[in-house]
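Data availability (excerpt). The following record was deposited with the supplementary files.
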Amino acid sequence: MEVDVLEFRVPVESNKTLFVWDIQPSQPEAQIYDGLHRVFSFFGPLHLLKVCPNAALGPPGFYALIKFYSAAQASEAQRQTDGRPLIQNAPLKVRLSSRQTPHFLSDGCRPLSHARCLELANHCLGFNGWTSDIIALKELTNEEEEGEEEGGGRRRRLKFGCLLQLRFPRHGQTTRAAAVVEDSFTCTGPDVLIQKRCRLQKLARERALVQAFSSVLLILLGDGKVMVEVKQTSDQFLADEAEGVVQVNQLSWGEFAADEEEADDEEWDLTDCWRPEDCGVSKEQ
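Predicted structure:
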């Protein structure tokens, strides 16, 4: 029986990445995106689908980059779609990437964003396949910093910690994780303090959930069934050790000011690429 293992981390391996080219310019880019997403999401959840116009020196048209979470699903998608028209009258070329994954990426790729974790878990397990419960959500620091800002505002520092439990009832698996987030900001009134407190509470919950999912493995069996396993780590919380403990993964607000989803594919610079050999695609596949 074929088995594939998915982790809640950004996929960077070449065997999970497809390139599609020979896309004709007869449709708008948004329509091409929708058509490709409909075709390739049939084979499994997608982490990324990016449609780009060919470079100015190339023929008119588009190419696409598609990232799967599963190498087996990417391979099956390539096998069944290569040379077929799919979204147009002419056949498309679909190849697995042959680009070598840098060692530092393959050994320590980033955890998925909060939204991607929810998307992958719901796709593979269903909306009732997992639950999360907040054990503790605590304000750790709320203090004024020295000095007064121009305009009469005062510098203030807030820190929140969250301890969360992630459960998979059908599989009998449970894991716990925690996160601490903080921010230093200019407080010009009680409304600013309330808004910042709400945002940090939300961020602490989301980062704790991401941390919990990072220890989860989804095992896809060949018959379509999914099993869940939890990686045992040295910093994992036990039920009788969780009381009063929240100091894990201290993060500053500034780390999350940028759009996380845009950062997920930052290692791919394809804006000037249209030939398959330029994109790390082997013509021999």
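Summary of structural features: The chain has a mean pLDDT of 80.
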